[in-house]
Structure prediction request, 456 residues.
Amino acid sequence: MKKIFLHYVILQTLTFAWSTPPSYELTQDFWNNPNFVRSFMGDYGFRSEIEPRYSKSEQGILREVIAKAENQLDEAIVYLEKKISPKSSAALDFALATMYYQKGRLTRSEQSYSSALLKFPSFLRAHKNLGFVKLGLGNYEEAASSLSKSISLGEGDGVTYVALGYCYYVLEQFVSAENAYRMGILLFPESKDARNGLVNCLLETSRFPEALALLNELLKKEPENVFCHRARASALQGLGKEKDATVALETLRRMGNLNNNDLIRLGDLYHNLNLYELSLTNYERAILNNEKLPIQKYVRVASILMQRGSYIDCFSYLDKIDSIFGKSYSPQNEKDVLLLKAEVLKATGKTEESSNILRDVVAKHPLEGRALIMLGHHAWEDHDHTLAEMFFERAAKIEDVEVKALIEHARMLVSIRSYEKAARLLEKAQEISPEARVGRYLESIRNLLLSARVRL
Prediction:
């Protein structure tokens, strides 16, 4: 907790209490840094063009607030609330907003800063502080607008630019974020948030060589910097240097700073390098750690294991997902896991068990196109072409899988020499989403039809 004193003919304490954020968010250091404190406080001068005037009686009110706020902040708030009216100075609203902020009442703080601006629209510090409050509330677009307005009125400190950069970053306006972060670095060179934000912008815009050069420079100064090692792995991966990226992440492991996201990334890298045992080892470490990621990340890992033909490992991983997350499955989670299990069972020859799972899925989720297509394949393999056609036709009515259903239906029809109908289905698929490989397949079927007509 950090106390600051705000002087605009008012002096009071201000508290910051922000939860520890993920690495891509503004760090706790940003809010507790003395530069932020000074930025929020402002200077002691008086600039009539950007600061509201106040009467002698209002000056007395503010002095009374100062005296109460030192040890009786709640009483100071109640006292000041009674003194504010539509005709009172914006300085009173500003002071009240700051005390609300100190108490963590961000919504009330936002309202009071807004009231101050209604009375005095060019109130620079009210715009800036309102931007910080909106940032704390997660209203990034409005925060960016308030912070930009304060800059246009003459604000020029690095903290404001760093906060503005972060707002743009969250809004995925990466070029604007980069510009703000660069200004932040010039004006607030010791800010890690500005530097980290700039690195993230370079990575988001695929400027991997520039990001790597900057990270290498930073690591010379801070060889133990965890963020830089992690970001360096991303830059190397973006450049296709996957072996070097694994080295960067293994460096984090030796430092004792490899988290679950890193373990999954390392598993992916080893998978891409065809080092499947190392890949599996890291995937399993990720799910067995106490720190848990969203279940979708683990389902994706199971899908990778399935796609590379590691069926036993995939089923084992799915069992781990079941044992850890089973009681907290959402309907979507449960469906995704069951569909993967059905795929593994089918791939390992357990067709009946796979079909039973798929029927259960369709009973609960009638519009689950992936399950319908898989059931169509089961029926096709059992030579029940009528049932297969029914499943494919049902799937084709679902937009997300319509094209895939049409193509699979056409493939089945080709297998029973129903070329003309198959061609019509493929033509429809090509109208919706043209694909070169499907176009070649359609052309070959048309050639078969032409040959058959010539023979007749």
Observations:
- Residues 28 and 284 are 32 Å apart (CA to CA).
- The mean pLDDT is 87.
- The radius of gyration is 31 Å.
